[in-house]
Design brief:
Layout lengths: L2 H21 L17 H5 L8 E4 L4 E2 L21 H12 L2 E4 L4 H21 L16 E23 L2 E20 L5 E25 L2 E12 L2 H22 L10 H28 L5 E14 L5 E2 L1 E11 L4 E14 L3 E15 L6 E13 L5 E14 L2 E12 L15 E13 L3
Parallel strand pairs: 1-3, 1-4, 2-4
Antiparallel strand pairs: 4-5, 5-6, 6-7, 8-10, 8-16, 9-11, 10-11, 11-12, 12-13, 13-14, 14-15, 15-16
Helix pairs in contact: 3-5, 5-6
InterPro entries: Curli_assmbl/transp-comp_CsgG, OMP/PagP_B-barrel
Pfam family, one: CsgG
Protein name: Outer membrane insertion C-terminal signal domain protein
């Protein structure tokens, strides 16, 4: 082997060894351990104590999505959401120290067992006259019922990735974001009134990272190596965190609405918890209002101003990139589609050969791919013409770019390819191809939105 081949081989071996250590590849059996703690489990335990614990019943807190686990090869018979959500909710209620959960999900089993105890006691008391017939204590009854469930599980809410490869050496990463929604409501058993209802969203993130080497180091000698790791957030943990957040919100909002009372000796803790939930609600409201700034909804007009860089692609070599200006108006039909009319002052130049100034007019139909996002790509196509002292020259154009929205303004970065129907933009007619121009633009738009 040459020294370069030896170096590549040693590098690949060290790379694989270090990655195996880094990724902590399982090498044996693991012992059972207690359930994983979540970030919200400790704040729930630190909530201000209640004046008196509330007896609550949970008949069934279940998966209401009916959705099956997504697979690459089609449908699966496994559900996407765990089916034991009632057990998770009861555990969270117990951890909160605000509620006394009572058995209602399998109340039939409880009643059957109590009947067995009564029958056994009666038979035993008949055989043993000295034994007094002791009655079973009554069951606790709930003053509040907790209802709701997981009502939504949306997959691939956000997906993306990034990768690069150069001479057979490359790496890539991909991510996927899902989302679950949990509703929880407290119902009075005295009159059936819904005392409080809360709603919580939780995202589930999955990521993967891959690296590979595929390279011929010599004739009939191929070096190939790859490594990867995938990390998926457990759905059960995500559901547990969402339920914990819902219980926390239910307690604090119930205190605010005077549905239940905290311990009078914990005023500071109560005020701190209420202020924290108010601050979080302010952030949610802020993001909701902020979304209105860049969510292009309904019909509206906007004006565009842009600086450009233009390059002629004609019959001469050594084209020169020249500056230009563009102004236009845009009309949005809806969130996705708009039509825009613009006029630009451009210069098409070949170094020391030709330099011509044109006024270009473009009419484009544009498609905004992600109108609800702050940052969105777009595509457009249309037709137009360029003109100077000579008759106008017709053309058509294709292009695309990105738009970043800020309140009533947006910043646009775009590229456009003009294809002419004439071959004399540079005063020379040669070959079968007509003249073309490549244009890059950076500008700003102001949106006149309906209030």
């Amino acid at each position: 082997m040459k020294w370069t081949h030896q170096f590549l081989f040693l590098f690949a071996t060290a790379f694989i060894t270090s990655c195996a250590t880094l990724l902590k590849i399982p090498d044996g059996k693991s012992d059972p351990k207690l359930g994983e703690k979540t970030n919200l489990q400790f704040p729930i335990k630190k909530l201000p104590p209640p004046k008196e614990k509330i007896v609550v019943g949970v008949y069934k807190f279940r998966d209401q999505t009916g959705q099956y686990k997504p697979t690459e090869n089609g449908s699966s018979f496994s559900t996407a959401i765990p089916q034991g959500i009632t057990s998770i909710l009861i555990k969270v209620l117990e951890d909160s120290n605000w509620f006394i959960p009572i058995e209602r999900e399998n109340v039939a089993n409880l009643l059957n067992e109590r009947q067995i105890i009564r029958t056994t006691k009666q038979e035993y008391s008949q055989n043993n006259k000295n034994n007094s017939n002791q009655q079973l204590p009554p069951l606790l009854f709930a003053g509040v019922l907790l209802e709701g469930g997981v009502i939504s599980y949306d997959t691939n809410v956000l997906t993306g990735g990034l990768g690069a490869r150069y001479f057979g050496i490359g790496a890539s990463t991909q991510y996927r974001q899902d989302r679950i929604s949990v509703y929880l409501r407290a119902v009075s058993t005295m009159n059936g009134k819904v005392l409080k209802s809360v709603y919580v969203d939780k995202t589930i993130l999955s990521t993967t990272l891959n690296g590979s080497i595929f390279k011929y180091v010599d004739t009939e000698k191929l070096l190939e190596s790859e490594v990867g790791i995938t990390q998926n957030e457990p759905v059960q943990i995500a559901v547990k965190e969402a339920i914990e957040k819902a219980v926390q919100a239910l307690i604090i909002e119930g205190i605010q609405d005077k549905i239940w009372e905290p311990d009078p000796n914990s005023i500071k803790e109560t005020d701190a918890a209420i202020n924290a939930i108010k601050e979080e609600q302010k952030q949610v409201d802020f993001l909701a209002n902020k979304a209105k700034y860049y969510d292009v909804k309904g019909k509206h007009y906007s004006i565009i101003g842009m600086v450009e860089a233009n390059t002629l692609q004609g019959d001469y070599e050594s084209p020169t990139t020249t500056p230009g200006l563009r102004f236009g108006i845009r009309y949005n039909f809806n969130r996705f589609w708009n039509i825009n009319l613009s006029s630009a002052f451009i210069t098409l130049e070949n170094k020391e050969i030709v330099r011509r100034r044109y006024q270009a007019t473009d009419l484009n139909l544009e498609y905004l791919m992600l109108p609800a996002n702050k940052f969105s790509p777009f595509l457009f196509a249309g037709g137009g013409f360029i003109v100077n002292r000579e008759p106008m020259k017709f053309k058509y154009q294709l292009g695309g770019g990105f738009e970043y929205f800020l309140k009533n303004f947006s910043i646009r970065l775009q590229s456009q390819y003009d294809l002419g129907f004439d071959d004399d933009w540079d005063t020379k007619i040669n070959g079968d191809l007509n003249d073309r121009a490549l244009r890059f633009g950076l500008g700003i738009s102001y949106h006149f939105r309906k209030k």
